Amino acid sequence: MSKITHTLTATLTKALLVGACSLGVAMTANAAPTSNTTSITKSSPVFLGDGGNYPFSEAVRVGDTLYMSGQIGFKNGKLVKGGVKAETKQALDNIHETLLKYGYQKSDIVKCMAMLTDMDDFDDFNKVYKAELTKPYPVRSAFGVAELAAGASVEVECIATK
């Protein structure tokens, strides 16, 4: 072996050993968890209540978030009389009852979706909505729809979190 080849081989071997040792030190240093490590936990959904004769859950809790099924103005198994204002009030009362049942408050609501069969009722809906919820209001979407279950004029679906 020539002197150049021998020197080159020795230099490469030394570099590989230094690199391997450095890698081992880095692996050892990173192997122990630190206090700054953020752990992400996945929470399985918990299905709550049932829709009675209908194929849905009343709510689903994932972690601290409660996803509620839409509510219409049903009371004692019948749609309340009085139009969109009465139905909106009853739908929001039903949402409040669901929230309380699972340990939440109206102030925990972060998102609502409103569906109205007549967008001309939007102002009346908003009057009741403002009276039932307080600032800061949840984010919200509102849609005009052709029909709702049981001939309802309005349906409201909400998400709450702690």
How many angstroms separate the termini? 74 Å
Q: Any low-confidence stretches, pLDDT <50, length ≥5? A: 2-29
Strand percentage lies at 15-25%
Number of helices: 3
Strand order of the largest sheet: 1-2-3-8-6-7
Largest sheet: 6 strands, mixed
Radius of gyration using CA atoms only: 30 Å
The secondary-structure element order is: HEEEEEHEHEE
Secondary structure: number of strands:
8
Question: What helical percentage do the residues reach?
Answer: 25-40%
Class inferred from helices and paired strands: alpha+beta
What's the average pLDDT? 83
Can you walk me through this structure?
The chain is an alpha+beta fold. Helix content is 36%, strand content 23%. The protein contains 3 helices and 8 strands; from the N terminus they run H-E-E-E-E-E-H-E-H-E-E. The strands form 2 sheets. The protein has a 6-stranded mixed β-sheet, with helices on one face. Strands 4-5 form a two-stranded antiparallel ribbon. Strand 2 and strand 3 form a beta hairpin. Helix 2 runs parallel beside helix 3. It is globular and about 45 Å long.
Q: Which structural traits does this protein have?
A:
162 residues, alpha+beta, 6-stranded mixed β-sheet, two-stranded antiparallel ribbon, globular, disordered N terminus
